[in-house]
Structure formats: structure tokens, C-alpha cells
Amino acid sequence: MNNKFKVKTGFTPLEILFRKISKKFFCPKSKRFLPAHLFSYPYAPKSSKIRFLTGFTLIETLIYAALISFIIGGSLIVVYQILKTNSNVYNKIIVEQEANFLLQKIRWTMTGVSTINSPAVGATSSTLSINKINFSRNPIIIDLNSNNMRMKSSSSQPFVLNSQNVTVQNLVFQHLAASSSIPEAININLTVSARQFSTTIYLRH
Asked: In terms of pTM, does the model score above 0.85?
């Protein structure tokens, strides 16, 4: 017995129903589905127009733009403050390192001193001149010139001790006289890039 099967092609009943419903739109006024072509101009009445696109209103857009501007502005301010703080910390470290280096140079000069030529006892000066024991290029002179701290020995040309990253605005040497319990000393006041540094070096004969 031969059974012939007829194969139908196309959409299923559920798909056909979905396509029919999708071609209609619900009208809130009549509370029923209407053909889609009635919702297109010029057939659709004003009361039955439906918005199918969503978006932001002008006020919402302005509010969001203001919020974004506020967030970006605040972020830029925070980043600027962080960079400024890092820069200030870096400059502070550079100044301290330069000042310590200059004071170490003065301490080396004051090691093994036999005579302090300048300043005189009880006096102050921007120039320090000393003679060292068993040193063939006496005297050693440290002075301030054009915001630079210089050093020279004997008749040689002076050379700058500080780097170009800083300026030395002030350099004062004070010759302190010896007492019964305190040896002779030199008090140094140094100003490097507007920061004050001071120390006192006692002579060890």
C-alpha cells in the first residue's frame, strides 16, 4: 500500500498568527489592534500617534552634560593637585640634597684646619679662608658669587659647587671664639632656593 505524504512548505500556524498580529498596532483610544497603515501619515489622527522611538529630553541632556563636565573637571583638578604635589616633593628633595652636599664640602674644608684666615674671631663674612695642615695648596677659599657657591685653592680659578637646579641666595660664615669648654668654631648659615640651612663646625686641632 502506497501512502503518499504531501509536504507543505511555508510558515507554521503560530508563525502566520504572529505575522498577522505584528502587522497591526494597538490603539489606546479604541483599545484594539488597528492595521499598521492607519498609523502612517496622513491617515493616522493626532490622538492615535504612537512614539516608537525613545531618547533623552533636552533637560535630561543638559543635566547629563553638566554632570559629565563636573566629573571631568573634578578629575582634572585632582590630577593637577597630584602632579603639583609630586613636583613640590621632588623640588624639596633636590634642594635638601644640594644643601647637604654644600655643607659636606664645607665640613671637608674645615677638617684638619691649622688657621682660619677669614672671617676674624667674632666677625661674619660671606667668604671663608682657611689653611689646612700638610696641604700644599693653601689657602682654601669658599665664597658666594652670583647666587653660586664657589671654592678655590691657592691661585687656581674658582669653581662652582652647586648645580644649576638650585640657587644660593645667602652664605654667611661666623667665626666663634673658643671658650674654656668649647673649641673654636665656624657657624654657617646657608640659603638654598629660599630654604634656610645652618650648622656649626668645631675645629679639631
From this structure: no
Q: Give 53-97 as a DSSP string.
A: -----HHHHHHHHHHHHHHHHHHHHHHHHHHHHHHHHHHHHHHHH
- The reply to whether 41 and 98 lie within a common domain is no
* 35 SS3 class: strand
Write the DSSP string, 102-154.
HHHHHHHHHTTEEEEEESPTT-EES-EEEEETT-TTPPEEEEEETTEEEEEET
Residue 139 lies in a domain: yes
Q: pLDDT of 114-152, one tens digit each?
A: 889 999 999 999 999 999 988 888 899 999 999 999 999
In this structure, the answer to whether residues 101 and 176 fall within a common structural domain is: yes
Does residue 40 sit in the same domain as residue 93? Answer: no
